[in-house]
Amino acid sequence: MSNLAGLRRQSLWLARLTLWLFSATALILVIVVAFPGFGYVRHLPAARLLPWLPAIVYLYALWAIRGAFRGFALGGAFGAEMARGCSRAGIALAVGGTLSAVGVPNLLRWLTAAGLIERIPGQWSGVLVFDIAYLAVGVVGLALALIGRLMRLAGEVQSEAEALREEVGAFF
């Protein structure tokens, strides 16, 4: 039982750390978008926001996984809450990795070609930004989404086992 208590304490610590990371990242995002001098894109507000679009999705991933950590720390077990948090965070990480590698570079290229924003020297203008970090984040996100589904199934099996145990216990 002490291992479970230790896991719950660690999960509460991770929930707090994730909340801190979420808050700090959200504050940085607001500062960069609201105050053009802090950003590296100093044109239209949409152009300032566009490079940070994946960060919004990553913030959602942080919030979702924080909920899973917190739910477990407060007495939760395998089941719907943890599975939902893992699945949502995983999907958000996969979407964020895709936006970082493909979405944002193409949107910037299209908006620049349409004359809606100015091309900044040194800014990527290709179709794909190949960075192994984006690939890793996306694949880890997909794995986390799968783990979330597995956790949901494990919770269902655990509930069925408990129901069977109670039913069998009534006979003895």
Task: Give your account of this protein's structure.
The structure is a single chain. The protein is mainly alpha-helical and 172 residues long. The chain has one domain. Helix content is 77%, strand content 0%. The chain is built from five helices and no strands. The protein has helices at residues 2-34, 45-49, 53-73, 80-113, 132-171. It is elongated and about 80 Å long. The protein starts with a helix and ends with a helix. The model has no long low-confidence stretch (mean pLDDT 83).
Task: Give structural attributes.
mainly alpha, elongated, 172 residues
Low-confidence stretches: none
How does the major sheet shape up? none
Round the Cα radius of gyration to an integer and report it.
21 Å
* Residues in β-strands, percent: under 5%
Computed structural class: mainly alpha
* General form: elongated
Ordered list of secondary-structure elements with their pairings:
Layout: H1 2-34, H2 45-49, H3 53-73, H4 80-113, H5 132-171
Helix pairs in contact: 1-3, 3-4, 4-5
